[in-house]
Amino acid sequence: MNAETPTPRKLRVATVSLAGCFGCHMSFLDIDERLFELIEHIQFDRSPLTDIKTVGPCDIGLIEGGLCNAENVEVLRAFRANCRVLVAVGACAITGGLPALRNHLDVGDMLQAVYGEVPNDPELPLPLNKVHPIHEVVRIDHSLPGCPPPADAFWQLLQDLMAGREPAPGLIRYD
Ligand code: SF4
């Protein structure tokens, strides 16, 4: 009797938006019908796509957005601790991006100007003085540049990682 070929294990993938606009996630979803092919090979862990709230052991973590508050740092550290491969997705994760435009302002003055007072509800995450790219806090394995990276870049990255290849440089779109 022939031994049955074991079904390859699906890769577990987590995604999160820190100080980002969810535009990178929307671009990921632009792989459209290829999502059906993708879910034959991966399953999602924590992600806006699943609504799972805490990250567990994963093969790949995709991080959108930089770090603007203490909660962002905590989530990023949890991703690093749980994800074998961590990818900085988009300009905000790689450089701080648009949210980092506030870095020349005093955070207290800024909150005062926006809210008329400095919010002090303990439920609110503590804002950082500056917005930081994620590589300043944890080790990053790969970067996917763009604002947002195009859908084809997500597709190529995941194809490479699923095949155990070093990912090709990201596809950057300037229009
Ligand atoms: Fe949004 Fe661009 Fe930042 Fe992605 S890189 S979160 S699309 S602003």
UniProtKB/TrEMBL annotation:
<keyword id="KW-0411">Iron-sulfur</keyword>
<dbReference type="InterPro" id="IPR051349">
    <property type="entry name" value="Hydrogenase_assoc-protein"/>
</dbReference>
<dbReference type="InterPro" id="IPR006137">
    <property type="entry name" value="NADH_UbQ_OxRdtase-like_20kDa"/>
</dbReference>
<keyword id="KW-0408">Iron</keyword>
<dbReference type="GO" id="GO:0051538">
    <property type="term" value="F:3 iron, 4 sulfur cluster binding"/>
</dbReference>
<keyword id="KW-0479">Metal-binding</keyword>
<keyword id="KW-0003">3Fe-4S</keyword>
<feature type="domain" description="NADH:ubiquinone oxidoreductase-like 20kDa subunit">
    <location>
        <begin position="21"/>
        <end position="160"/>
    </location>
</feature>
<dbReference type="Pfam" id="PF01058">
    <property type="entry name" value="Oxidored_q6"/>
</dbReference>
<dbReference type="InterPro" id="IPR037024">
    <property type="entry name" value="NiFe_Hase_small_N_sf"/>
</dbReference>
<dbReference type="GO" id="GO:0016491">
    <property type="term" value="F:oxidoreductase activity"/>
</dbReference>
<protein>
    <submittedName>
        <fullName>NADH ubiquinone oxidoreductase, 20 kDa subunit</fullName>
    </submittedName>
</protein>
<keyword id="KW-0560">Oxidoreductase</keyword>
<keyword id="KW-0830">Ubiquinone</keyword>
